[in-house]
Each structure stands twice: as C-alpha cells, then as structure tokens.
C-alpha cells in the first residue's frame, strides 16, 4: 500500500514526529536616537512692556511684559536682557523720543528691588534669569518701572534684546 503525502504527514503527526523544516538563524540590531538640547525664545512673540499713557506727574509707573521660552526637558538656560538702544549699561536704560530720554528699569521679580534688576551679566553676581527646560513653553514675566514721567510730552520708546543661552 502506498501512502499519499497527505496520509504520510498525518501518520507523522499521529506518531508525534514533526516533519523537518529549515534551520533558524537570528541577528540583532540597535535602535538609536541622539537628542540635542535646544531652546526657543521667539516662537511666541514677546509681550511689550507698555507703560501706557500717563500724566507727567506720575511716579513709579509699573507695567509688565512677557517672554516665552521652550527648552528641551532638563536643559539649563539663562536669559539675558541687553541695555536697550539708549542705555550705556543696565542702570541707564532709557526710552527716547529722539531728543529727551525717560529712564526705566526691567526686573526679574515683581518686587522690583535692586537685586531683581534683569541684565546680561552671567556668573557670580550675575543678573540674568536662570531656569530649566520642561519641554513646554514657559511664560516669564518681565517687570518694568519708570521712576518718573516728569519729562516733555511725547511718545518715548526703546528696544531691548532678550537672549537665551543654553
């Protein structure tokens, strides 16, 4: 009696004998990614520090603006503010109408104390804002004060550059 291939396979399976198959071989490979730190300070536009319209008798006029920074999680950063277009140093920031200048100051904290002045000095005794990235946009207030509005009636302005270093 001849067995057909189907009957032969059935006989092997009933007897617990598996037919021979090709051998196995394996290999491994890596899956990698290199993530670099990054910080972005300009995706969301900065909000101006606008002191508004005030009488020339006004003193200690306070307002605030906002910067938004988005850094890689765990990335340490500092944000510096320059002296503006009219200031020789952080203590001489001024808004100008082209002839006259109105002094003002920018601060890292709402208290607006002498130790809160926001500038561009890093290291010991520095006056930059330090933080750590979260991977999400972080809103950072910029507190401003002009001590006196006792200047000729005009519109005064200045431009400050914010720089994030990471």
Automatic annotation (TrEMBL):
Which keywords fit this entry according to its UniProt record? Capsid protein, Signal, Virion
Q: Which residues form the Spore coat protein U/FanG domain?
A: 26-163
Q: Which residues form the signal peptide?
A: 1-22
Q: Which InterPro entries match?
A: Spore_coat_component, Spore_coat_U/FanG
One Pfam annotation reads SCPU
Q: Which PANTHER family match?
A: EXPORTED PROTEIN, PROTEIN U-RELATED
Protein name per Swiss-Prot or TrEMBL: Spore Coat Protein U domain protein
